[in-house]
Design a protein that fits this description.
It is built from 14 helices and eight strands. It is an alpha/beta fold and 365 residues long. It starts with 5 loop residues before the first helix and ends in a 12-residue tail after the last helix. 45% of the residues are buried.
């Protein structure tokens, strides 16, 4: 996406409404993607040690789950943005949205399992027509609720302007995308005008009490590099973010999470177009950190696609690599069957084990 101005928001909102109507009239039932298989093959043919052999070298194979703590639910790929780095390939024309039936299957799994956190993602999860109903249902359970917000949804249209107060009323923890504290870097990665819209969204969250030391409403930001490099030190970047955002905009937040760009989807395409795929993969391999494996998110997380299919992580979901075993869908969730399962690994997994490691909760070591 090149621009995200006021005029663009109106046109994007029209696209979103059109997509929602199309889904209502003819819900998408199956996602079939030849591209995911091509992406896997592309990464497998690169001259690097297979990730599985790297784990074996350090006596960490098979990689297994060790607990059920986080249920990450992707409500769909519909979004009001089209970001260059998006591993979901989300946008205003994506029709994949979770049904209420699948949402209820997720609720049943939460009631039956030992999850302590539900992590709502997308696309823009807030854009789902049943988002608020789902959050209200989750809030009735003794479980932490996280929503991963692109921030611009908070000022996208008046239909979403009450989201900060809604989040606060249901004690939702907000993890927000903010790849830099400068307009140049953010707009280059996410579209012209996105930085200003993100700042406005952060200010609305602060006004509601989010991110303040005297509040229990948590606001965390997510940084990812603008190109084929590893994130810098998380603590140092957090200090820089807090200093710059406070000085320039009066914005406060709790923590900064650094996440490595995964070599899949749009970022993979950019790497291929720029001729940097091999160099980036070698960078990840050369910085493999065996200590990060113990805390990989796939070991305590189950990722749910919009159609209920279960994955070891959000990245495996985007490559359509479901969990191993006979039970594939959340409607058949059985903790005893799924615990201590072997995790599906491919070469993109180097992205989570390079440098300080990377997960949805930031650096691992």
């Amino acid at each position: 996406m090149e621009k995200y101005t006021e005029k663009d928001r109106v046109e994007i909102y029209k696209k979103v409404r059109k997509t929602l109507q199309q889904v209502k009239e003819a819900p998408v039932e199956v996602t079939v993607s030849k591209k995911t298989r091509k992406d896997i093959a592309e990464l497998n043919k690169i001259e690097i040690p297979p990730f599985s052999k790297q784990l074996k070298k350090f006596k960490q194979l098979p990689l297994q789950s060790d607990s059920f703590e986080i249920l990450q639910i992707n409500l769909g790929y519909l979004c009001n943005q089209v970001c260059n780095h998006c591993h979901v390939n989300a946008g205003p024309s994506r029709k994949e949205l979770m049904s209420v039936k699948t949402m209820k299957d997720c609720l049943k799994a939460i009631d039956a399992g030992n999850f302590h956190t539900v992590d709502l993602t997308g696309g823009a999860p807030e854009i789902h027509p049943d988002f608020k109903w789902f959050v209200k249902e989750l809030s009735q359970r003794n479980i932490k609720i996280i929503v991963r917000s692109n921030l611009t949804i908070l000022t996208f249209h008046k239909a979403y302007e009450d989201l900060p107060t809604f989040f606060a009323a249901h004690q939702v923890e907000v993890i927000a995308s903010m790849p830099c504290y400068t307009v140049e870097n953010v707009d280059k990665q996410r579209g012209e005008g996105v930085f200003d819209a993100s700042i406005e969204g952060l200010q609305k969250l602060n006004e509601t009490g989010y991110g303040r030391t005297d509040s229990n409403l948590k606001l965390h930001l997510v940084y990812n590099p603008g190109g084929p490099s590893l994130p810098g030190d998380q603590e140092s970047l957090e200090a820089d973010y807090k200093r710059m955002l406070s000085a320039n905009f009066g914005i406060v937040f709790n923590k900064l999470y650094t996440i490595t760009n995964m070599p899949i989807s749009r970022f993979l395409n950019d790497l291929k177009k720029s001729g940097k795929l091999l160099d980036y993969m070698r960078l990840l391999v050369d910085n493999f950190n065996s200590a990060s494996v113990e805390n990989l998110m796939c070991r305590n997380t189950v990722s749910i696609r919009w159609d209920g299919t279960m994955y070891d992580c959000d990245f495996n979901q985007m490559l359509d690599l479901p969990i191993l075993g006979a039970v594939k869908n959340i409607e058949n969730f059985n903790e005893l069957v799924l615990e201590k399962r072997n995790i599906v690994v491919q070469n993109h997994c180097y992205g989570c084990t390079a440098g300080a490691g990377s997960s949805c909760q930031g650096a691992l070591s």
